[in-house]
Write a structure and sequence with these properties.
The chain is an alpha/beta fold. It has 9 helices and 15 strands. The strands form 3 sheets. Strands 1, 2, 3, 4, 5 and 11 form a 6-stranded mixed sheet that branches. It is elongated, with a radius of gyration of 22 Å. The N and C termini lie far apart (about 60 Å). Bound molecules: 3-phenylpyruvic acid (PPY). 3-phenylpyruvic acid binds next to helix 1, strand 3 and helix 5. Keywords: Amino-acid biosynthesis, Aromatic amino acid biosynthesis, Lyase, Phenylalanine biosynthesis. Homodimer. This is Prephenate dehydratase. InterPro entries: ACT-like_dom_sf, ACT_dom, Chor_mutase/pphenate_deHydtase, Preph_deHydtase, Preph_deHydtase_CS.
Length: about 300
């Protein structure tokens, strides 16, 4: 049996479309799962080699279920990311008219991307969340809802028709998906990489977040995502999911992570992986004093000082 990748299903999700852009899917069995936690647990249980799940969108930010699931439980690591531009279609059973729609469904992350369109076109319609956009389409096929926001490509799969296509409140809305597996050595740096971590702060005091961010700032590491998530230990207790530019093998990134490890009760490394859609030409040169060679020269100098050989 070929190795399998579990993904947020059922068939016809944006997740599946994004997953199929990875060349290695040609030799993998793709297994739709009912939820993000189910896909991740399939990896933890050794039933799937990897899971492919949505993690962030450009309209609403982090997809919290995914961030929360990666922050706790048996550790997993991100190996790849895929960016997909998203527009929605309003899918209905054949013959349904806009005026006949009383209920609509989709994944919760779809709502901020279609809210204005709904306000203008379906102002009195009741929204209910589905496990995924394709699951919403499946529920419309079953007659549970009148319409679903989903990819136009999902229509044929569920015997529906698109009443409207190209629905998107924000121009160029993109969703980011990640391929997640059990921890192993990250792929070698490409020069255009990203490092994801979740960090917990030691205690609540003025400047606590600033102290964490300084570890990146003083080493010239640019941040690409900062998301606070409740730890579940009472109001005001947060951990922070952070994406930083660079690879853990880059000295400035490694040193920033070591700095965090010294001051945080817990640091969870979620992986270093190539940035989607970014080439070497798009990557800024390191800030003065933060290149690998400058870190090495400084450690050599320190060793010489310690030896009295300066
Ligand atoms: O992949 C899907 O279809 C999903 O349900 C997740 C999702 C939600 C909103 C935008 C893109 C992907």
């Amino acid at each position: 049996m070929p190795a399998s990748y579990a993904y947020l299903g059922p068939e016809g999700t944006f997740t599946e479309v994004a997953l199929r852009t990875l060349p290695e899917t040609a030799t993998r069995q793709l297994v739709p799962m009912v939820s993000v936690p189910a896909a991740l647990d399939a990896v933890r249980a050794g039933e799937a080699e990897a899971a492919f799940v949505p993690i962030e969108n450009s309209v609403e930010g982090g997809i919290t279920t995914t961030v929360d699931e990666l922050a706790v439980g048996e550790p997993l690591m991100i190996y790849r990311e895929v960016l997909l531009s998203i527009t929605f279609a309003l899918l209905v059973r054949p013959g349904t008219k806009l005026s006949g729609i009383k209920t609509v469904t989709a994944h919760p992350a779809a709502q901020p991307q279609v809210r204005n369109w709904m306000r203008n076109n379906l102002p009195d319609v009741v929204w209910e969340s589905a496990a995924s956009n394709a699951d919403g389409a499946r529920l419309v096929q079953e007659g549970r809802y009148d319409a679903a926001f989903a990819g136009e490509f999902a229509a044929a799969r569920y015997g529906l028709e698109p009443l409207e296509t190209g629905i998107h409140d924000a121009e160029n809305a993109q969703t980011r998906f990640v391929l997640v597996g059990k921890p192993a050595r990250p792929a070698a740096p490409t020069g255009a990489d990203k490092t994801s971590v979740v960090i917990w702060q030691r205690d609540d005091h003025p400047g606590a977040l600033l102290e964490l961010l300084q570890e990146f700032a003083v080493r010239g590491v640019n941040l690409m995502l900062l998301q606070s998530r409740p730890t579940g230990e009472g109001i005001g207790n947060y951990c922070f999911a952070i994406d930083a530019e660079g690879h853990i093998a880059d000295r400035r990134v490694g040193e920033a992570l070591m700095g965090l490890k010294r001051i945080c009760p817990q640091v969870r490394f979620l992986g270093s992986y190539p940035r989607a859609g970014v080439g070497l030409a798009d990557v800024r040169a390191p800030r003065a004093g933060t290149s690998d060679s400058e870190f090495s020269a400084a450690s050599d100098w320190l060793a010489r000082c310690q030896d009295g050989r300066f």
